[in-house]
Write a structure and sequence with these properties.
The chain is an alpha/beta fold.
Length: about 280
């Protein structure tokens, strides 16, 4: 009986994968959204902060980085079908992704990974080395490659990670080199967004043109938020695109502090920088 159920489960997963692939093939054929030559684009694919109508929000974060040596998916939100549906709506083909970077162990950042790998298993997944063996083995069975990250690491000439930071929740940030400097993408910034940005700047010896993602400032008082703002400004951060767990009040204060250099980072938002 259990063998029959397992066989049916495999059949259903294959069927669902074929359906998704057909849908994406049609979308990419008739409504392609190309990355402008010479640019690096960051597209929010999963977010609880809304921005572009017609997409489905959800608690969590995922960001697609295109225009570099490799196409990178940073985090996968908490629901794979919702992630794939948003990619479909935005004309993004999951089969174009080469690398997946998972920031930390919380489900709202890795929950969509299994469904994504059903569609595109031909990727290398970079996870914090502190992930438990059971989770590591599960990803290893589905993905073409798995790398457990401890220290800072170069993933491609213009793509790096800070490496694991913080306790008890170990987290890594994505660091991307653009023609304007470094873009730092954080999942939740549990170790502190200032700490993560400082590390990126120290490691890769360049200016910080933008910090985007979750800043983990929900529920913080105005004074502590303003101290974070002051420290980011002292690090020379040119622009910010906070979303996810940053919190509405913090996002308002960031908008006031950066003015025209505040960037909407909500679901569906596309942020474009010059390539190197």
């Amino acid at each position: 009986m259990s063998a029959g159920r397992e066989r049916n489960g495999v059949i259903h997963r294959i069927r669902d994968t074929i359906i998704v692939l057909v849908i994406f093939s049609i979308v990419c054929l008739f409504s392609p959204r190309r990355v402008p030559a010479g640019t690096v684009t960051f597209t929010s694919l999963f977010n609880n902060v809304p921005s572009v109508p017609g997409l489905t929000t959800g608690w969590g974060y995922a960001c697609l980085v295109e225009g570099l040596e490799k196409t990178v998916l940073f985090d996968t939100g908490d629901d794979g079908q919702r992630l794939l549906a948003n990619m479909c709506s935005l004309g993004k083909d999951p089969r174009d992704v080469d690398i997946i970077v998972i920031s930390h162990i919380h489900h709202d950042h890795r929950g969509g990974l299994a469904a994504f790998l059903n569609v595109n298993p031909h990727v290398t997944v970079y996870i914090p080395a502190s992930f438990p063996p059971s989770l590591t083995e599960s990803i290893q069975k589905r993905a073409a490659g798995l790398v457990a990250v401890t220290g800072s690491r170069t993933l491609a000439p213009s793509i790096m990670t800070t490496g694991e930071m913080g306790q008890p929740i170990a987290e890594q940030a994505l660091v991307v080199k653009t023609g304007r400097g470094l873009v730092v993408v954080t999942g939740c910034a549990h170790p502190g967004v200032v700490t993560m940005v400082r590390r990126a700047k120290t490691l890769y010896k360049d200016s910080i043109t933008c910090v985007m993602g979750g800043f983990h400032l929900m529920g913080r008082d105005d004074g502590s938020i303003r101290r974070v703002i002051d420290r980011l400004k002292s690090l020379g951060v040119t622009s910010v695109a906070p979303s996810h767990c940053t919190g509405d009040r913090a996002r308002t204060l960031f908008r006031d502090a950066w003015g025209l250099r505040f960037i909407d980072g909500g679901l569906g938002a596309v942020v474009v920088f010059e390539g190197r």
